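User: ok so my PI wants both of these folded by tonight, can you help

Assistant: No problem, let's get them done. Here's the first:
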Amino acid sequence: MFKHLVLHKPLAILDLETTGTDPQNDRIVEIGILKALPDGRHQHYNRRVNPGIPIPSEATAVHGITDADVADELRFEQLAPDLRAFLDDCDLCGFNLKRFDLRFLHVEFNRASQPLTLEGRAILDPMEIFHAREPRDLSAAVRYYCGREHEDAHTASADVLATAEVLDAMLGRYTDLPQTVAGLDQHFKSPNAVDSAGNFVRVAGEIRFAFGKYRGQPLDTVARMKPDYLQWMLTQDFFDDTKAVIKNALGRSRRREMV
Protein backbone atom coordinates (compact mmCIF):
# COMPACT_ATOMS: atom_id res chain seq x y z
CA MET A 1 0.00 0.00 0.00
CA PHE A 2 2.71 2.50 0.98
CA LYS A 3 5.54 3.24 -1.42
CA HIS A 4 7.31 5.80 0.79
CA LEU A 5 6.13 5.43 4.38
CA VAL A 6 8.13 2.92 6.41
CA LEU A 7 6.19 1.00 9.07
CA HIS A 8 7.80 -0.65 12.08
CA LYS A 9 4.48 -1.39 13.79
CA PRO A 10 0.82 -1.40 12.70
CA LEU A 11 -0.61 1.97 11.66
CA ALA A 12 -4.37 2.48 12.16
CA ILE A 13 -5.72 5.11 9.76
CA LEU A 14 -9.11 6.16 11.03
CA ASP A 15 -12.04 8.43 10.28
CA LEU A 16 -15.22 9.11 12.23
CA GLU A 17 -18.61 10.46 11.28
CA THR A 18 -20.52 12.04 14.16
CA THR A 19 -23.71 13.81 15.19
CA GLY A 20 -21.80 17.09 15.58
CA THR A 21 -18.51 18.65 16.60
CA ASP A 22 -18.66 18.62 20.42
CA PRO A 23 -17.16 15.41 21.90
CA GLN A 24 -18.91 15.96 25.23
CA ASN A 25 -22.42 16.18 23.78
CA ASP A 26 -22.23 14.59 20.34
CA ARG A 27 -21.67 10.94 19.47
CA ILE A 28 -20.01 8.76 16.84
CA VAL A 29 -22.27 7.31 14.11
CA GLU A 30 -19.67 5.63 11.88
CA ILE A 31 -16.13 4.33 12.32
CA GLY A 32 -13.77 3.51 9.48
CA ILE A 33 -10.30 2.12 10.14
CA LEU A 34 -7.65 0.84 7.78
CA LYS A 35 -4.89 -0.98 9.68
CA ALA A 36 -1.68 -1.17 7.66
CA LEU A 37 0.80 -3.81 8.82
CA PRO A 38 4.60 -3.68 8.40
CA ASP A 39 4.52 -6.79 6.20
CA GLY A 40 2.30 -5.05 3.63
CA ARG A 41 -0.98 -6.64 4.67
CA HIS A 42 -3.91 -4.50 5.74
CA GLN A 43 -7.11 -5.01 7.74
CA HIS A 44 -10.38 -3.10 7.77
CA TYR A 45 -12.80 -2.13 10.52
CA ASN A 46 -15.97 -0.42 9.28
CA ARG A 47 -18.99 -0.06 11.55
CA ARG A 48 -21.94 2.21 11.94
CA VAL A 49 -22.84 3.05 15.51
CA ASN A 50 -26.14 3.80 17.21
CA PRO A 51 -25.38 7.14 18.93
CA GLY A 52 -28.30 6.92 21.35
CA ILE A 53 -29.30 10.47 20.43
CA PRO A 54 -31.00 11.95 17.34
CA ILE A 55 -28.75 12.76 14.39
CA PRO A 56 -29.30 16.42 13.45
CA SER A 57 -30.28 17.13 9.86
CA GLU A 58 -27.17 19.30 9.51
CA ALA A 59 -24.98 16.28 10.29
CA THR A 60 -26.96 14.02 7.94
CA ALA A 61 -26.44 16.59 5.19
CA VAL A 62 -22.68 16.06 5.58
CA HIS A 63 -22.36 12.27 5.89
CA GLY A 64 -25.76 11.03 4.72
CA ILE A 65 -26.43 8.89 7.79
CA THR A 66 -29.95 9.06 9.28
CA ASP A 67 -31.50 7.84 12.53
CA ALA A 68 -33.07 4.93 10.61
CA ASP A 69 -29.67 3.90 9.24
CA VAL A 70 -28.27 3.28 12.73
CA ALA A 71 -31.39 2.27 14.65
CA ASP A 72 -30.39 -1.40 14.73
CA GLU A 73 -26.64 -0.87 15.18
CA LEU A 74 -24.72 -1.46 18.41
CA ARG A 75 -23.89 1.37 20.81
CA PHE A 76 -20.25 2.45 21.16
CA GLU A 77 -19.89 0.92 24.62
CA GLN A 78 -20.83 -2.46 23.10
CA LEU A 79 -18.21 -2.09 20.38
CA ALA A 80 -15.50 -0.63 22.62
CA PRO A 81 -13.74 -3.85 23.76
CA ASP A 82 -13.32 -5.23 20.22
CA LEU A 83 -12.40 -1.82 18.83
CA ARG A 84 -9.82 -1.28 21.53
CA ALA A 85 -8.32 -4.70 20.77
CA PHE A 86 -8.22 -3.86 17.05
CA LEU A 87 -6.24 -0.70 17.85
CA ASP A 88 -3.90 -2.42 20.28
CA ASP A 89 -0.21 -1.76 19.53
CA CYS A 90 -1.11 0.56 16.65
CA ASP A 91 0.22 3.99 15.88
CA LEU A 92 -2.66 6.26 14.88
CA CYS A 93 -3.24 8.31 11.74
CA GLY A 94 -6.10 10.37 10.37
CA PHE A 95 -6.85 13.57 8.52
CA ASN A 96 -7.63 16.19 11.22
CA LEU A 97 -7.13 13.37 13.73
CA LYS A 98 -5.66 15.48 16.53
CA ARG A 99 -8.33 18.17 16.54
CA PHE A 100 -11.39 16.03 15.87
CA ASP A 101 -11.44 12.22 15.63
CA LEU A 102 -9.01 11.50 18.47
CA ARG A 103 -10.93 13.73 20.86
CA PHE A 104 -14.16 11.87 20.09
CA LEU A 105 -12.48 8.49 20.55
CA HIS A 106 -10.93 9.65 23.82
CA VAL A 107 -14.31 10.72 25.24
CA GLU A 108 -16.25 7.73 23.90
CA PHE A 109 -13.74 5.16 25.21
CA ASN A 110 -13.69 6.82 28.62
CA ARG A 111 -17.49 6.92 28.65
CA ALA A 112 -17.44 3.17 27.97
CA SER A 113 -14.90 2.63 30.80
CA GLN A 114 -12.40 1.37 28.21
CA PRO A 115 -9.68 4.09 28.20
CA LEU A 116 -7.54 4.20 25.07
CA THR A 117 -4.00 5.06 26.11
CA LEU A 118 -1.82 7.15 23.80
CA GLU A 119 1.40 6.20 25.56
CA GLY A 120 3.88 4.67 23.16
CA ARG A 121 1.85 5.57 20.09
CA ALA A 122 2.96 7.88 17.30
CA ILE A 123 0.12 10.20 16.22
CA LEU A 124 0.17 11.21 12.54
CA ASP A 125 -2.14 13.82 11.05
CA PRO A 126 -1.56 14.34 7.29
CA MET A 127 -3.51 17.58 7.64
CA GLU A 128 -0.52 19.02 9.53
CA ILE A 129 1.75 18.24 6.56
CA PHE A 130 -0.87 19.48 4.13
CA HIS A 131 -1.54 22.75 5.96
CA ALA A 132 2.19 23.31 6.36
CA ARG A 133 2.72 22.89 2.60
CA GLU A 134 -0.66 23.32 0.85
CA PRO A 135 -3.41 24.64 3.17
CA ARG A 136 -6.75 23.05 2.07
CA ASP A 137 -9.04 20.10 2.92
CA LEU A 138 -9.00 16.35 2.24
CA SER A 139 -10.75 16.58 -1.13
CA ALA A 140 -8.26 19.19 -2.29
CA ALA A 141 -5.42 17.06 -0.93
CA VAL A 142 -6.57 14.07 -3.01
CA ARG A 143 -6.86 16.32 -6.07
CA TYR A 144 -3.44 17.91 -5.53
CA TYR A 145 -1.36 14.93 -4.41
CA CYS A 146 -3.14 12.04 -6.13
CA GLY A 147 -4.39 13.73 -9.31
CA ARG A 148 -8.00 12.63 -8.96
CA GLU A 149 -11.29 13.70 -7.42
CA HIS A 150 -12.19 12.35 -4.00
CA GLU A 151 -15.34 10.35 -4.67
CA ASP A 152 -17.69 9.54 -1.76
CA ALA A 153 -16.18 12.21 0.50
CA HIS A 154 -17.49 12.06 4.08
CA THR A 155 -17.98 8.31 4.06
CA ALA A 156 -15.63 6.80 6.60
CA SER A 157 -14.30 3.97 4.43
CA ALA A 158 -13.56 6.28 1.46
CA ASP A 159 -11.96 8.91 3.69
CA VAL A 160 -9.50 6.50 5.33
CA LEU A 161 -8.42 5.15 1.95
CA ALA A 162 -7.99 8.70 0.67
CA THR A 163 -6.01 9.64 3.79
CA ALA A 164 -3.62 6.72 3.27
CA GLU A 165 -3.16 7.62 -0.41
CA VAL A 166 -2.57 11.31 0.37
CA LEU A 167 -0.07 10.55 3.16
CA ASP A 168 1.96 8.27 0.94
CA ALA A 169 1.89 10.71 -1.99
CA MET A 170 3.07 13.49 0.33
CA LEU A 171 6.16 11.53 1.29
CA GLY A 172 6.89 10.92 -2.37
CA ARG A 173 6.66 14.64 -3.08
CA TYR A 174 8.41 15.99 0.02
CA THR A 175 11.53 13.85 0.10
CA ASP A 176 13.01 15.94 2.92
CA LEU A 177 10.36 14.61 5.33
CA PRO A 178 11.09 11.57 7.52
CA GLN A 179 9.93 8.30 5.96
CA THR A 180 8.96 6.56 9.20
CA VAL A 181 5.88 6.97 11.37
CA ALA A 182 7.95 7.83 14.47
CA GLY A 183 10.07 10.28 12.48
CA LEU A 184 7.01 12.11 11.14
CA ASP A 185 5.47 12.17 14.60
CA GLN A 186 8.56 13.89 16.01
CA HIS A 187 8.98 16.20 12.99
CA PHE A 188 5.59 17.88 13.58
CA LYS A 189 5.70 17.82 17.37
CA SER A 190 6.76 21.03 19.08
CA PRO A 191 10.15 20.44 20.73
CA ASN A 192 8.90 22.32 23.79
CA ALA A 193 5.54 20.53 24.07
CA VAL A 194 4.97 18.83 27.41
CA ASP A 195 1.84 16.86 26.42
CA SER A 196 0.67 15.30 23.15
CA ALA A 197 -1.91 18.01 22.45
CA GLY A 198 0.56 20.84 23.08
CA ASN A 199 -1.59 22.42 25.79
CA PHE A 200 1.54 22.98 27.90
CA VAL A 201 5.03 23.98 26.80
CA ARG A 202 8.35 24.13 28.63
CA VAL A 203 9.93 27.58 28.66
CA ALA A 204 13.32 27.96 30.37
CA GLY A 205 12.67 24.78 32.34
CA GLU A 206 9.22 25.92 33.47
CA ILE A 207 5.89 24.45 32.33
CA ARG A 208 3.55 27.12 30.98
CA PHE A 209 0.04 27.21 29.53
CA ALA A 210 -0.05 27.31 25.72
CA PHE A 211 -3.78 27.99 25.43
CA GLY A 212 -6.76 29.70 27.06
CA LYS A 213 -7.00 32.54 29.53
CA TYR A 214 -3.79 31.50 31.31
CA ARG A 215 -1.76 31.25 28.11
CA GLY A 216 1.88 32.04 28.91
CA GLN A 217 1.35 31.68 32.66
CA PRO A 218 3.38 29.16 34.71
CA LEU A 219 1.36 26.04 35.47
CA ASP A 220 2.66 25.87 39.04
CA THR A 221 1.50 29.45 39.67
CA VAL A 222 -2.01 28.62 38.45
CA ALA A 223 -1.98 25.44 40.55
CA ARG A 224 -1.15 27.54 43.63
CA MET A 225 -3.46 30.50 42.92
CA LYS A 226 -6.33 28.89 40.97
CA PRO A 227 -6.43 25.16 41.80
CA ASP A 228 -10.18 25.06 41.11
CA TYR A 229 -9.48 25.83 37.46
CA LEU A 230 -7.13 22.87 37.19
CA GLN A 231 -9.64 20.65 39.02
CA TRP A 232 -12.22 21.74 36.43
CA MET A 233 -9.82 20.83 33.62
CA LEU A 234 -9.60 17.31 35.04
CA THR A 235 -13.35 16.90 34.41
CA GLN A 236 -13.08 17.90 30.75
CA ASP A 237 -12.11 15.90 27.63
CA PHE A 238 -8.37 16.59 27.74
CA PHE A 239 -6.10 13.65 26.91
CA ASP A 240 -4.74 11.52 29.73
CA ASP A 241 -1.18 12.86 29.44
CA THR A 242 -2.51 16.43 29.73
CA LYS A 243 -4.38 15.46 32.88
CA ALA A 244 -1.26 13.79 34.24
CA VAL A 245 0.65 17.07 33.89
CA ILE A 246 -2.16 18.87 35.74
CA LYS A 247 -2.28 16.27 38.53
CA ASN A 248 1.48 16.52 39.00
CA ALA A 249 1.23 20.31 39.31
CA LEU A 250 -1.56 20.05 41.88
CA GLY A 251 0.49 17.49 43.79
CA ARG A 252 3.52 19.79 43.87
CA SER A 253 1.32 22.61 45.10
CA ARG A 254 -0.12 20.50 47.94
CA ARG A 255 3.34 19.34 49.02
CA ARG A 256 4.57 22.95 49.18
CA GLU A 257 1.62 23.85 51.41
CA MET A 258 2.55 21.05 53.81
CA VAL A 259 6.13 22.26 54.22
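One down. Here's the second:
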Amino acid sequence: MSFTTIKFTTSDPVMQELLIADLYEMPGITGFEETDEGLIAYVDPDLIAWEAIQKTAQLRNLQFETGQLAERNWNEEWERNFSPVVVDDFCYIRADFHPAYKAVQHEIIITPKMSFGTGHHATTQMMISLMRQVRFDGKKVFDFGTGTGILAILTEYLGAAAILAVDYDIWSYENALENCSKNNTEKIQLMQGTLEDVSDTGFDIILANINRNILLQYMPAMAEMLSPNGILLLSGILAGDDEPAIIQAAEAQQLHAVQSLTKDKWAAIKFEKSER
Protein backbone atom coordinates (compact mmCIF):
# COMPACT_ATOMS: atom_id res chain seq x y z
CA MET A 1 0.00 0.00 0.00
CA SER A 2 1.26 3.50 -0.84
CA PHE A 3 0.59 6.61 1.19
CA THR A 4 0.25 10.28 0.37
CA THR A 5 2.22 12.69 2.54
CA ILE A 6 1.02 16.19 3.39
CA LYS A 7 3.74 18.46 4.78
CA PHE A 8 2.66 21.66 6.52
CA THR A 9 5.49 24.18 6.66
CA THR A 10 5.90 25.33 10.27
CA SER A 11 8.74 24.90 12.74
CA ASP A 12 6.57 26.11 15.63
CA PRO A 13 5.89 23.15 17.97
CA VAL A 14 2.70 24.79 19.25
CA MET A 15 1.35 25.12 15.72
CA GLN A 16 2.30 21.52 14.99
CA GLU A 17 0.29 20.39 18.05
CA LEU A 18 -2.68 22.49 16.92
CA LEU A 19 -2.49 20.90 13.48
CA ILE A 20 -2.43 17.40 14.95
CA ALA A 21 -5.56 18.26 16.93
CA ASP A 22 -7.22 19.65 13.77
CA LEU A 23 -6.38 16.58 11.68
CA TYR A 24 -6.53 13.87 14.33
CA GLU A 25 -9.92 12.34 13.48
CA MET A 26 -10.15 13.24 9.80
CA PRO A 27 -10.82 10.24 7.57
CA GLY A 28 -7.74 8.82 5.90
CA ILE A 29 -5.18 10.17 8.39
CA THR A 30 -2.87 7.30 9.38
CA GLY A 31 -0.08 9.00 11.32
CA PHE A 32 2.05 12.08 11.93
CA GLU A 33 5.74 12.96 12.00
CA GLU A 34 6.95 16.16 13.69
CA THR A 35 10.17 17.56 12.19
CA ASP A 36 12.19 20.75 12.57
CA GLU A 37 10.82 21.98 9.25
CA GLY A 38 7.17 21.04 9.57
CA LEU A 39 4.46 18.52 10.34
CA ILE A 40 4.04 15.57 8.00
CA ALA A 41 0.68 13.80 7.91
CA TYR A 42 0.53 10.34 6.35
CA VAL A 43 -2.79 9.73 4.62
CA ASP A 44 -4.66 7.09 2.66
CA PRO A 45 -5.25 8.84 -0.68
CA ASP A 46 -8.53 6.96 -1.19
CA LEU A 47 -10.06 8.25 2.03
CA ILE A 48 -8.65 11.71 2.65
CA ALA A 49 -11.04 14.69 2.52
CA TRP A 50 -9.03 17.28 0.58
CA GLU A 51 -11.53 20.09 1.21
CA ALA A 52 -11.02 19.65 4.95
CA ILE A 53 -7.24 19.77 4.48
CA GLN A 54 -7.53 22.99 2.47
CA LYS A 55 -9.77 24.59 5.12
CA THR A 56 -7.35 23.61 7.89
CA ALA A 57 -4.41 25.15 6.02
CA GLN A 58 -6.38 28.36 5.42
CA LEU A 59 -7.49 28.50 9.05
CA ARG A 60 -3.90 28.20 10.27
CA ASN A 61 -2.52 30.41 7.46
CA LEU A 62 -0.07 27.70 6.41
CA GLN A 63 1.26 26.32 3.14
CA PHE A 64 1.42 22.59 2.47
CA GLU A 65 2.81 20.27 -0.15
CA THR A 66 1.94 16.70 -1.02
CA GLY A 67 4.10 13.74 -1.93
CA GLN A 68 3.97 10.00 -2.36
CA LEU A 69 5.38 7.42 0.04
CA ALA A 70 5.62 3.86 -1.20
CA GLU A 71 5.26 0.96 1.19
CA ARG A 72 8.60 0.46 2.91
CA ASN A 73 10.46 -2.24 4.71
CA TRP A 74 9.87 -0.56 8.07
CA ASN A 75 12.11 -2.97 9.96
CA GLU A 76 14.97 -1.94 7.69
CA GLU A 77 14.08 1.76 8.10
CA TRP A 78 14.03 1.61 11.88
CA GLU A 79 17.12 -0.57 12.10
CA ARG A 80 18.93 2.23 10.30
CA ASN A 81 17.52 5.09 12.41
CA PHE A 82 16.15 3.78 15.72
CA SER A 83 18.47 3.84 18.73
CA PRO A 84 17.65 2.34 22.15
CA VAL A 85 16.31 4.56 24.93
CA VAL A 86 17.11 4.30 28.64
CA VAL A 87 14.84 6.03 31.17
CA ASP A 88 16.98 6.23 34.31
CA ASP A 89 17.67 2.73 35.66
CA PHE A 90 13.99 1.93 35.29
CA CYS A 91 13.14 1.17 31.66
CA TYR A 92 15.10 0.22 28.53
CA ILE A 93 13.30 0.51 25.18
CA ARG A 94 14.85 -1.21 22.19
CA ALA A 95 14.06 -2.87 18.90
CA ASP A 96 14.45 -6.62 18.61
CA PHE A 97 17.69 -6.18 16.63
CA HIS A 98 19.35 -4.38 19.57
CA PRO A 99 21.15 -6.36 22.30
CA ALA A 100 19.45 -6.82 25.66
CA TYR A 101 20.43 -4.56 28.55
CA LYS A 102 20.09 -5.96 32.05
CA ALA A 103 20.95 -2.92 34.18
CA VAL A 104 17.32 -1.74 34.31
CA GLN A 105 14.16 -3.00 35.96
CA HIS A 106 12.10 -3.34 32.77
CA GLU A 107 12.93 -3.93 29.12
CA ILE A 108 10.43 -3.27 26.32
CA ILE A 109 10.90 -4.36 22.71
CA ILE A 110 9.30 -2.02 20.16
CA THR A 111 8.94 -2.14 16.39
CA PRO A 112 7.58 1.39 16.06
CA LYS A 113 6.88 1.83 12.34
CA MET A 114 4.81 5.04 12.03
CA SER A 115 3.11 4.86 15.43
CA PHE A 116 3.81 7.36 18.20
CA GLY A 117 5.63 6.08 21.27
CA THR A 118 9.18 4.94 20.61
CA GLY A 119 10.42 6.29 23.92
CA HIS A 120 12.50 8.99 22.24
CA HIS A 121 10.01 11.80 22.76
CA ALA A 122 10.14 13.72 26.05
CA THR A 123 6.44 13.15 26.69
CA THR A 124 6.81 9.35 26.61
CA GLN A 125 9.86 9.47 28.86
CA MET A 126 8.06 11.65 31.41
CA MET A 127 5.02 9.38 31.39
CA ILE A 128 7.34 6.47 32.18
CA SER A 129 8.97 8.46 34.98
CA LEU A 130 5.55 9.27 36.50
CA MET A 131 4.46 5.64 36.16
CA ARG A 132 7.49 4.55 38.17
CA GLN A 133 6.01 6.31 41.21
CA VAL A 134 2.51 4.83 40.91
CA ARG A 135 1.40 1.46 42.30
CA PHE A 136 -0.11 -0.61 39.50
CA ASP A 137 -0.42 -3.91 41.38
CA GLY A 138 -3.88 -5.37 40.77
CA LYS A 139 -5.14 -2.16 39.12
CA LYS A 140 -7.52 -1.70 36.22
CA VAL A 141 -5.90 0.62 33.65
CA PHE A 142 -7.01 2.48 30.53
CA ASP A 143 -4.35 3.63 28.01
CA PHE A 144 -6.02 6.27 25.80
CA GLY A 145 -4.15 6.74 22.50
CA THR A 146 -1.81 3.80 22.97
CA GLY A 147 0.32 4.32 19.82
CA THR A 148 2.96 1.57 19.84
CA GLY A 149 1.48 0.14 23.05
CA ILE A 150 4.61 1.04 25.00
CA LEU A 151 2.86 2.40 28.10
CA ALA A 152 0.33 -0.43 28.17
CA ILE A 153 3.17 -2.95 28.03
CA LEU A 154 4.97 -1.24 30.90
CA THR A 155 1.70 -1.18 32.84
CA GLU A 156 1.49 -4.97 32.65
CA TYR A 157 5.11 -5.27 33.75
CA LEU A 158 4.23 -3.10 36.76
CA GLY A 159 1.57 -5.56 37.87
CA ALA A 160 -1.75 -4.24 36.53
CA ALA A 161 -4.56 -6.79 36.57
CA ALA A 162 -6.34 -5.59 33.41
CA ILE A 163 -5.39 -3.04 30.75
CA LEU A 164 -7.57 -1.61 27.98
CA ALA A 165 -5.48 0.13 25.29
CA VAL A 166 -7.24 2.12 22.56
CA ASP A 167 -6.10 3.98 19.44
CA TYR A 168 -8.22 5.29 16.57
CA ASP A 169 -5.47 4.70 13.99
CA ILE A 170 -5.41 1.26 12.31
CA TRP A 171 -1.64 1.51 11.80
CA SER A 172 -1.09 2.11 15.52
CA TYR A 173 -3.54 -0.62 16.49
CA GLU A 174 -1.80 -3.20 14.31
CA ASN A 175 1.62 -2.06 15.52
CA ALA A 176 0.50 -2.28 19.17
CA LEU A 177 -0.74 -5.83 18.54
CA GLU A 178 2.70 -6.73 17.16
CA ASN A 179 4.52 -5.13 20.08
CA CYS A 180 2.30 -6.76 22.70
CA SER A 181 3.06 -10.11 21.09
CA LYS A 182 6.81 -9.40 21.10
CA ASN A 183 6.65 -8.62 24.82
CA ASN A 184 4.49 -11.66 25.67
CA THR A 185 1.73 -9.65 27.31
CA GLU A 186 -1.39 -11.40 28.58
CA LYS A 187 -3.51 -8.73 30.27
CA ILE A 188 -3.77 -6.09 27.55
CA GLN A 189 -6.98 -5.78 25.55
CA LEU A 190 -6.37 -3.71 22.41
CA MET A 191 -9.15 -1.84 20.64
CA GLN A 192 -9.23 0.29 17.52
CA GLY A 193 -11.54 3.24 18.07
CA THR A 194 -12.07 6.44 20.01
CA LEU A 195 -12.98 7.08 23.60
CA GLU A 196 -16.66 7.12 22.59
CA ASP A 197 -16.30 3.43 21.73
CA VAL A 198 -15.28 2.57 25.30
CA SER A 199 -18.22 1.63 27.51
CA ASP A 200 -16.15 0.38 30.45
CA THR A 201 -15.66 2.53 33.56
CA GLY A 202 -14.17 2.18 37.03
CA PHE A 203 -10.56 2.46 35.94
CA ASP A 204 -8.06 2.91 38.76
CA ILE A 205 -5.52 4.58 36.46
CA ILE A 206 -5.86 6.32 33.09
CA LEU A 207 -2.87 7.15 30.87
CA ALA A 208 -3.21 9.69 28.06
CA ASN A 209 -0.21 10.98 26.12
CA ILE A 210 -1.98 12.73 23.25
CA ASN A 211 -2.29 16.49 22.72
CA ARG A 212 -3.83 19.52 24.37
CA ASN A 213 -7.08 19.74 22.40
CA ILE A 214 -7.91 16.06 22.69
CA LEU A 215 -7.14 16.12 26.42
CA LEU A 216 -9.41 19.13 26.93
CA GLN A 217 -12.17 17.61 24.82
CA TYR A 218 -12.22 14.34 26.72
CA MET A 219 -11.40 15.55 30.25
CA PRO A 220 -15.00 15.14 31.53
CA ALA A 221 -15.25 11.65 30.01
CA MET A 222 -11.90 10.55 31.47
CA ALA A 223 -12.94 11.86 34.89
CA GLU A 224 -16.19 9.92 34.64
CA MET A 225 -14.33 6.73 33.73
CA LEU A 226 -12.01 7.00 36.76
CA SER A 227 -12.88 5.26 40.00
CA PRO A 228 -12.98 7.31 43.23
CA ASN A 229 -9.42 8.27 44.24
CA GLY A 230 -8.23 7.19 40.77
CA ILE A 231 -5.10 8.52 39.09
CA LEU A 232 -4.84 10.29 35.72
CA LEU A 233 -1.42 10.70 34.06
CA LEU A 234 -1.33 13.16 31.15
CA SER A 235 1.26 14.38 28.68
CA GLY A 236 1.41 15.80 25.18
CA ILE A 237 1.25 19.16 26.96
CA LEU A 238 3.48 22.11 26.16
CA ALA A 239 5.07 23.39 29.38
CA GLY A 240 3.75 26.80 30.36
CA ASP A 241 1.48 27.24 27.34
CA ASP A 242 -0.90 24.32 27.86
CA GLU A 243 -0.60 23.60 31.57
CA PRO A 244 -3.01 26.25 32.95
CA ALA A 245 -5.85 25.22 30.63
CA ILE A 246 -5.29 21.52 31.32
CA ILE A 247 -5.18 22.01 35.09
CA GLN A 248 -8.27 24.24 35.04
CA ALA A 249 -10.23 21.69 33.00
CA ALA A 250 -9.12 18.89 35.32
CA GLU A 251 -9.98 20.83 38.50
CA ALA A 252 -13.50 21.37 37.15
CA GLN A 253 -13.85 17.57 37.15
CA GLN A 254 -12.48 17.14 40.68
CA LEU A 255 -9.10 16.05 39.33
CA HIS A 256 -6.33 17.67 41.33
CA ALA A 257 -2.74 18.08 40.12
CA VAL A 258 -0.31 16.52 42.59
CA GLN A 259 2.90 16.25 40.54
CA SER A 260 4.36 17.59 37.31
CA LEU A 261 7.50 17.08 35.25
CA THR A 262 9.00 19.17 32.44
CA LYS A 263 11.47 18.18 29.73
CA ASP A 264 12.39 19.78 26.39
CA LYS A 265 9.49 22.31 26.57
CA TRP A 266 6.98 19.54 27.34
CA ALA A 267 5.12 18.74 30.56
CA ALA A 268 3.52 15.69 32.15
CA ILE A 269 1.07 15.94 35.05
CA LYS A 270 -0.28 13.49 37.61
CA PHE A 271 -3.84 14.09 38.82
CA GLU A 272 -5.77 12.40 41.59
CA LYS A 273 -9.58 12.22 41.63
CA SER A 274 -11.32 13.34 44.80
CA GLU A 275 -14.78 12.20 45.81
CA ARG A 276 -17.56 14.66 44.98
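Helices lie at 13-23, 50-60, 74-81, 122-132, 150-157, 170-182, 212-225, 243-251. The longest strand covers residues 226-238. Good luck tonight!
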